[in-house]
Amino acid sequence: MTSQDLQIEQRGAIAVLRLNRAGKRNALSDGLVLAIRDAFQNLPEGTRAAVIHGDGEHFCAGLDLSELQERDAGAGLLHSRMWHAALEQVQFGPVPVVAALHGAVVGGGLELAAACHVRVADETAFYALPEGSRGIFVGGGGSVRIPRLIGVARMTDMMLTGRVYDAQEGERAGFAQYRVPQGQALDKALELAGRIAQNAPLTNYALMHALPRIAEQPADQGYLTEALMAAIAQSAPEAKERVRAFLEGRAGKVGKG
Phi and psi for 65 in degrees, rounded to 5? Predict the structure, then answer.
């Protein structure tokens, strides 16, 4: 599916996806959600990382309420599951995803950001879940992903009271791992994606697909899954060459920056 609402640019090994509905604060229509799904299902060969950002003054102000329809329970269930399947392609797709956040990161926009692996926010970013005041409930995976970032109590407070977190509060709460000056989120996201793209693909895959599942497993099962994943990752030819380069002094040491 192609969509004018999602612009995709390939910058070497990095796919850059731009939400392109600035006139609607990049609100998520069903068409845009499906376009995001299709984009991650069809990334060009050689893509090693992706960046998502929003055109205009906001990352994403949430669900496009002009599309909100009266649905019976069955139709509502299927609609929510469509969002789940789409954002699953972001979280558990082929490459790590960095979100560049600015302005509104609200409702469905926060659900999209939570599906990404690294989040960079500039000083204009703010976070909210207005569904509670609108008589609805999150339906794009937010009740699973957002508490894993900030905890159940904080999410409950946001939905009960309409609390809004600014960029500084949001970084402290766990919405974003990085906070940068206004206008610099995309540049920082691209810098991080460039670093990520240089990692061994199997290591990136393990961090995306195995680590979150290990974190949910009982300890004894997690240890076994970790051992299996470690054995698979270190057996890859690229991993062996990287270790050899380090032992022979051909690789850089860990440092700040």
Answer: -65, -15
